Amino acid sequence: MDLSHCFPPVADRSARVLVLGSLPGKASLNAQEYYANRQNAFWRIMGDLIGAGPDLPYAQRLESLRSAGIALWDVIAAGERPGSLDANIVKHSVCVNDFLAFFAVHRGIRHVFFNGGAAEATFRRYVLPSLQDLNLQLVRLPSTSPAHAASSYADKLAAWSVIVAPAK
């Protein structure tokens, strides 16, 4: 099976929060865009929160994230995953991104928000032990994936609003 690879981070040095997914799904890999699956609520939520909705060109959505101080990346740099479900990520294939280097450049980030449980669990298991010297607030948000139908859009939007003005 081929390895799936994540995209480069969307971030500039003024980023104050980091949103982490697990690994791009098939639609995203095919389009070479974060959250390209139109059923995924991520860009709809970003549209409601910061004006970076799915109708904007992709480059403009990314610029809106950067302008709002929001960085976007994935925990997993590469891994095997048949299909797009996080539950299908082959654990022994996981290679995580270099977060020590990332946080060395993006020193203003103190809040890390996880887009669902797989991103959080992978970060806590493979990354967090190497980041003991950083004072990070870690918060899991409900997944924006269409596979996570347990929360309504309104509930997801309310939960995700914390990324705009996180508590100190």
Q: Could you walk me through the main structural features you see in this protein, from its secondary elements to its overall organization?
A:
30% of the residues lie in helices and 17% in strands. With 168 residues, the protein is an alpha/beta fold. The chain has a single domain, classed as 3-Layer(aba) Sandwich (Uracil-DNA Glycosylase, subunit E). Strands 3-2-6-7 form a 4-stranded parallel sheet. Strands 1-4-5 form a 3-stranded antiparallel sheet, with helices on one face. The longest helix is centred in the C-terminal third of the chain and has 11 residues, at 117-127. The termini are far apart.
Query: What does the largest sheet look like?
Result: 4 strands, parallel
* Annotated CATH architecture: 3-Layer(aba) Sandwich
CATH class: Alpha Beta
Number of strands: 7
List low-pLDDT spans: none
Domain count: 1
Shape: globular
Q: Which band does the percent of strand residues land in?
A: 15-25%
N- to C-terminal separation? 43 Å
Order of strands, main sheet, comes to 3-2-6-7
Find the structural class using helix and strand composition.
Answer: alpha/beta
Radius of gyration: 15 Å
Fold-level CATH name: Uracil-DNA Glycosylase, subunit E
CATH superfamily annotation: Uracil-DNA glycosylase-like domain
How helix-rich are the residues, as a percent range?
A: 25-40%
pLDDT averaged over residues: 90
Supply the number of helical segments: 6
H and E order: EEHHHEEEHEHEH
